[in-house]
Amino acid sequence: DIVMTQSPDSLAVSLGERATINCKSSQSVFCGSDNRNCFAWYQQKPGQPPKLLIYWASTRGSGVPDRFSGSGSGTDFTLTISSLQAEDVAVYYCHQYHSDPLTFGQGTKLEIK
Amino acid sequence: QITLKESGPTLVKPTQTLTLTCTFSGFSVSTNGVGVGWIRQPPGKALEWLGIIYWDGAQRYSPSLKSRLTITKDSSKNQVVLTMTNMDPVDTATYYCAHRPLYNSVWNSFDYWGQGTLVTVSS
User: Which of A63, A54, A49, A62 minimizes the C-alpha distance to A96?
Assistant: First the structure.
């Protein structure tokens, strides 16, 4: 199984400041097709299902604000929120869809400082 | 517009079999390049992938749960059904179904999710 490890487990950032969450996979999730990584980020607010933020490691999902960006390749990935807004308070999960079993990170709880 | 909704019992007893139905709209599970998966989340914990069924009927399961899971589809009803046997209190979780699309011959991530249904296992 590909193990996904996020850091940190929790994060407190001031409004308007940058937030950075990291994820490391135990094996490369490079798909090999069109130079893509089979890697995604999800945002989950309390009582809601996960929302797809980023896929192919760096492509924003439908309607996702451009303050959210994804980067990285192979085994190391980063989610950056350039200017934290109050509505960004949530738990963020990384996810590999390179191979079965599909796996998720343990989650990073993002709060306002 | 793609929507999915999970339905089934909210409470099951230990050793019983859980059956959940995912009813969806906006796509067909018999269309080339479509998958419907199941993911669960124990209260306060992380997401766990359970399994998936693809447009051609192929199924994939989490190895740790494979012996207990069955996923089937009914294209005429736009439904996918998850069956999990021998339920235990540790299986208490919110169960989600989600849509997985194929993109340029590569399976993408789950893009649309149902709201989830909380299943409690208790005697």
Answer: A54
| Percent of the residues in chain B that have a pLDDT greater than 90, as a whole number | 93
Shortest Cα distance from A31 to chain B (angstroms)? 8
pLDDT in tens, B43-91: 999 999 999 999 999 999 999 999 999 999 999 999 999 999 999 999 9
What span, in angstroms and rounded, lies between the C-alpha atoms of A96 and A94?
7
Best to test chain B binding among A29, A102, A108 (most B CBs inside 10 Å): A102
Q: How many CB pairs under 8 A join A and B?
A: 60
List B residues 46-85 in contact with A (Cβ-Cβ < 8 A): 46-49, 52, 60, 62-64
* Conformation bin of residue B50: beta by default, left when phi > 0, alpha when psi is -120 to 50: alpha
Q: What are the residues whose beta carbons fall under 8 Å from the beta carbon of A15, sequence distance 6 or more?
A: A84, A85, A86, A112
Spatial separation of the C-alpha atoms in residues A26 and A3, rounded to whole Å: 5
Ranges under pLDDT 70 in chain A: 33
Q: Is B101 helix (H, G, I), strand (E, B) or coil?
A: strand
The predicted pLDDT at position B104 comes to 80
pLDDT tens for each residue of B16-35: 999 999 999 999 999 888 99
Dihedral of alpha carbons B5, B9, B11, B12, sign: negative
Interchain pair A97, B108: CB under 8 A: yes
**CA nearest to A1 within chain B:** B63
Q: What is the pLDDT of residue A35?
A: 80
